[in-house]
Amino acid sequence: MKRTFDILQRAMLPLDGTIARWVPEIMDAYARIRPTGAWRELTMVDFTAGSCLMPALFAASGVRQLVVNDYAPRSKLAADFLFGRQPISLRRVEALLRSRRPKPRVHVPTFHFACDYLLEPVCEIFDRLYYADVPASERTGLRYLAVRWALGFARTAEEGFEILYTHDIRQLAQTSDVDWHPYLARLRRYRSVMSALVRDLNASLGVIGPVRASIHCADMVEIAPKLRLKGPVFAAVNPPTRGLDEYTIDDQLVHSLMSNRWLPLSKVSESPMAFWTRRVSAALKHLPLGAEFMVWGGDGSMHWRECFQIWALFGEPLHISRLGSGEDAAGWAILRRTGNGVELQ
Ligand SMILES: C[S@@+](CC[C@H](N)C(=O)[O-])C[C@H]1O[C@@H](n2cnc3c(N)ncnc32)[C@H](O)[C@@H]1O
Fold it and tell me: Does residue 343 form part of some domain?
């Protein structure tokens, strides 16, 4: 499990707020509820897949049927690659990197809108991969590779990108308040960075194995009533507790790269509590009776107790884990869907 987890962690989408590191513990707890021998029959649903680590690890542990959803296109791209079984050809990547600068096509050169964060050669490599003129079967892998290449220039997934106050490499190297050396070294070593990325991304396909994945990029409120789930189900429900806009801000660069224009921010009109409650309730309300579900809460604008009150409307707890000892410590739980659900707005 540890080796598989390490492989999948290197291939997942890096994401601020991901619960990836707790996934093995969550799966161990679930295996005590439903032994892994019975997972072949299971449908694993992730309403907020984010990094995609959890559905990937379920698939690597014998689950054959996945429903993967996230409102954000960067997670759909990750899912399309991880569950699409099309490895990236390193020869193709090397040829694209070697080729003369492609003529500008319909797209805006990425540097024209991403220059506050990405140096021009970083953007050029992104464009060569993301907009490569290749057969459709190769596009998802190259696009995910391009996104992972660009995300690698963030300080960390949690800290995000530094603003480039200059594009003069010498000035950057001498700047003392920000250490630009890792950034510049990544760019200088782009060929070896790329081959390590290709190796890591392709390795994940080897451990995930044959899985039927239905992949969506929708608000969970919309998708939940449309899923016709049958048989045993395990669902993960982990929307943000501070409202959707935090993801718009954190991911503004990656979403802009994928949209080929700088995206404006938008503010959700619901309060964070209403946002979270409506989404969690919609997902849980539509689960079949008897389904198990994993929920996470208490680390945003809602306390653990407030979260738990909502979960308990839809099921009975089978396992609870808290991350700290205080009454308000965040945590996660696995519940079984029971028939005591209340219709919430
Ligand atoms: C706290 S993150 C965790 C994701 C995932 N469990 C992980 O560990 O990577 C929440 C995720 O919910 C997604 N999200 C936000 N609003 C959503 C919505 N209305 N419907 C579906 N997904 C949403 C975000 O894009 C983000 O990937």
Answer: no
